[in-house]
Q: What sequence folds into this?
C-alpha cells in the first residue's frame, strides 16, 4: 500500500462470552488514523445492554477461572506472550495507523507487554497466602489470597498496547475475570487486540470481554460498570480529571479502584551533571511519543551555572526533531492523537506566551503534527506551569539553590515521576527523596518503566502500584482459622 491509496477500513467486532459480536442494533463508529485523517476501522458502538452482556459473561466465567490450576493458567499467559511476539511487526504497523505511535515507541510497548505476560505467568505459583500467629492456643490462622470477581478495566489510548495489557493482565493472573472498555481513540490497540491475543491463546470464553463505544457515548456503559453489584473493582488508567470522577463513583458503591493518572514530571539538572547526557536524556524524556506519555518531562530545572549551555544545546536538538508519518520507519515522532489534543497544546502555549513566555523552538503544527516546543520565562500563573499539557512542550527554567529546585519540582498537584541529573549520586538520591513523586530516577529520564517495577504515582497522579504489587489491588486477603481444641468462652 502506498500513502496515495487509501486502504479499506477494517471492520471490527467486540468480544463477549468468547464470541466476536456486533453492538446491539449493529451500530458502529469510525476510528480515525490521526496522521492521514482516513478511517482506520469501523468499530462497534456499544450501549448499556452490551456492557451488561459482557458483565454477565465475566460473572459466569469467574468460578471456573478462579478454580483453574496454576499450571493451566500459566500456560495461557505464556502462549499469549508468544502470540504477541509473533504478531509484533503487524502490531507496530497497526499502532502507527490507529494511534500515531512511531515505531520505536510501538516496539517498546510490544516488548513491555510480552514481558508483562511472561512475568504474570508466574503469579499463579506465588504463595497464595501466609500463616498468621494466633494468640489463642490451638488456633491455626491463615491469610488466604482470593480473587475479587469481575473487574472493570478502563484503558487510555496513549500507551495503547502496554496499558491495554496492563489493565487486564494482573487482574486475570490473580484469578479475576475482566470487562475491558478501551479508549474510543484506540479501541483496537488498547482493547480488541487484547481480546484477539487472549482468545487465540485459549483463555476460556467470558474470562476477558472487550466492549467498545463511540466518542461521547461512554455514559451508559460506565453506568452499568459502576452500578452493577457483579463488578467488584476497577482498574483505571487515564487523566486525573476522569480518575477523580470515577473514584467518586466507585466510592459511592464502596468498591475499590486502582488509579494510574496524569503527571507533571520535573527533571532537575545540577551544575555538576554531565551536560551532553543531560541534554540527550531531556530530549528523549520530553518529546518521545510527541509528549503523550504520562511520564514525559514537562519542566526542566537547570542550576544557573549550567543553564545557558544546557539551553543552547537543548534548543538546537529540539529544533532538529521533526514529526511525520509514523508508518514510515524513519519517523521519530508522529502526530497528536486528534484535533482536540492539537487545540489543547496550542492553547497551553498561547496562554504562556500571553503571560510573557518565549518560544525558543517549535510552537507550530501542520495537520496534527506538532513541532517539539521549548518555552522559557513561563509565568507561574500560566496553567502549563503546573498542569499537564499532553503534547511535545517543555519548560526550561534556571534555579539557584537545591531547595528552590525541590520547591519548584513540588509546585504541582501531580506526583508521578521525576529525575535528577548529577555527578554526585548520593546528592541525587537525597534531592530525589524530597520530591513528591511515585518514581525518582537519578541520572535517568522521568520516562521508562519495566513490567516488574512498582509503577505508580502520588498526589493527583493516583495510588495504584503495578509489578507484583498489583496483586494486593486485585485480590482479597481472607482469614481462615481452625480451632484445634475445644475453646472456653465467657458466655
Ligand atoms: P481520559 O481520562 O480522557 O480517558 C481514559 C479512559 O477513561 C478512556 O477509556 C475513556 O473512554 C474513559 N472515560 C472517560 N470518561 C469516562 C467516564 N465518564 N466514565 C467512564 N470512563 C470514562 O484519558 P486519555 O486521554 O485516554 O489518556 C491520557 C491521560 O492518561 C493523561 O492524563 C495521561 O497522563 C494519563 N495516563 C496515565 C498513565 C499512568 O500510568 N499514570 C498512563 C497513561 C496515561
A:
Amino acid at each position: 500500500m502506498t500513502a496515495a491509496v487509501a486502504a479499506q477500513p477494517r471492520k471490527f467486532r467486540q468480544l463477549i462470552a468468547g464470541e466476536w459480536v456486533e453492538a446491539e442494533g449493529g451500530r458502529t463508529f469510525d476510528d480515525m488514523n490521526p496522521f492521514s485523517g482516513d478511517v482506520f476501522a469501523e468499530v462497534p458502538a456499544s450501549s448499556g445492554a452490551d456492557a451488561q452482556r459482557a458483565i454477565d459473561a465475566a460473572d459466569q466465567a469467574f468460578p471456573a477461572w478462579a478454580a483453574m490450576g496454576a499450571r493451566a493458567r500459566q500456560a495461557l499467559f505464556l502462549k499469549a506472550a508468544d502470540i504477541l511476539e509473533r504478531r509484533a511487526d503487524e502490531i507496530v504497523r497497526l499502532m502507527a495507523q490507529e494511534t500515531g505511535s512511531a515505531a520505536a515507541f510501538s516496539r517498546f510497548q510490544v516488548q513491555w507487554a510480552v514481558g508483562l505476560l511472561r512475568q504474570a505467568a508466574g503469579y499463579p505459583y506465588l504463595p497464595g497466602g501466609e500463616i498468621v500467629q494466633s494468640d489463642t492456643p490451638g488456633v491455626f490462622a491463615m491469610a488466604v489470597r482470593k480473587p475479587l470477581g469481575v473487574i472493570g478495566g478502563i484503558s487510555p489510548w496513549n500507551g495503547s498496547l502496554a496499558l491495554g495489557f496492563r489493565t487486564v493482565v494482573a487482574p486475570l493472573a490473580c484469578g479475576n475475570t475482566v470487562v475491558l472498555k478501551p479508549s474510543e481513540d484506540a479501541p483496537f490497540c488498547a482493547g480488541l487486540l487484547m481480546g484477539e491475543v487472549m482468545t487465540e491463546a485459549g483463555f476460556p470464553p467470558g474470562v476477558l470481554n472487550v466492549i467498545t463505544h463511540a466518542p461521547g457515548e461512554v455514559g451508559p456503559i460506565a453506568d452499568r460498570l459502576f452500578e452493577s453489584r457483579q463488578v467488584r473493582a476497577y482498574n483505571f488508567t487515564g487523566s486525573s480529571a476522569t480518575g477523580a470522577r470515577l473514584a467518586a463513583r466507585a466510592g459511592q458503591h464502596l468498591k475499590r479502584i486502582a488509579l494510574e493518572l496524569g503527571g507533571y514530571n520535573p527533571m532537575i539538572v545540577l551544575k555538576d551533571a554531565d551536560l551532553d547526557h543531560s541534554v540527550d536524556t531531556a530530549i528523549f524524556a520530553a518529546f518521545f511519543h510527541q509528549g503523550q506519555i504520562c511520564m514525559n518531562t514537562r519542566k526542566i530545572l537547570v542550576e544557573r551555572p549550567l543553564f545557558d549551555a544546557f539551553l543552547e544545546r537543548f534548543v538546537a536538538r529540539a529544533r532538529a526533531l521533526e514529526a511525520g508519518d509514523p508508518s514510515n520507519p524513519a519517523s521519530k515522532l508522529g502526530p497528536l492523537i486528534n484535533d482536540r489534543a492539537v487545540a489543547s497544546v496550542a492553547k497551553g502555549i498561547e496562554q504562556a506566551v500571553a503571560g510573557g513566555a518565549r518560544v525558543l523552538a517549535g510552537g507550530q503544527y501542520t495537520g496534527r503534527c506538532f513541532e517539539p516546543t521549548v518555552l522559557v520565562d513561563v509565568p507561574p500563573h500560566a496553567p502549563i506551569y503546573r498542569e499537564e499539557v499532553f503534547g511535545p512542550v517543555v519548560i526550561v527554567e534556571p534555579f539557584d539553590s537545591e531547595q528552590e529546585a525541590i520547591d519548584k519540582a513540588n509546585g504541582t498537584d501531580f506526583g508521578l515521576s521525576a529525575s535528577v541529573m548529577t555527578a554526585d549520586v548520593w546528592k541525587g538520591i537525597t534531592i530525589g527523596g524530597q520530591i513528591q513523586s511515585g518514581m525518582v530516577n537519578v541520572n535517568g529520564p522521568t520516562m521508562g518503566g519495566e513490567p516488574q517495577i512498582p509503577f505508580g504515582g502520588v498526589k493527583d497522579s493516583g495510588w495504584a502500584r503495578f509489578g507484583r504489587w498489583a496483586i494486593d489491588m486485585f485480590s482479597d486477603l481472607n482469614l481462615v482459622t481452625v480451632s484445634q481444641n475445644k475453646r472456653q468462652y465467657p458466655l
Notes: Residues 48-67 form the longest helix (20 residues). The CA atoms of residues 11 and 449 lie 33 Å apart. The domain at 265-442 is CATH 3.40.309.10 (Aldehyde Dehydrogenase; Chain A, domain 2). Residues 154-159, 163, 182-184, 218, 222, 237-239, 242, 245-246, 260-263, 294, 388, 390, 416, 457, 461-462 surround nicotinamide-adenine-dinucleotide (CB under 6 Å).
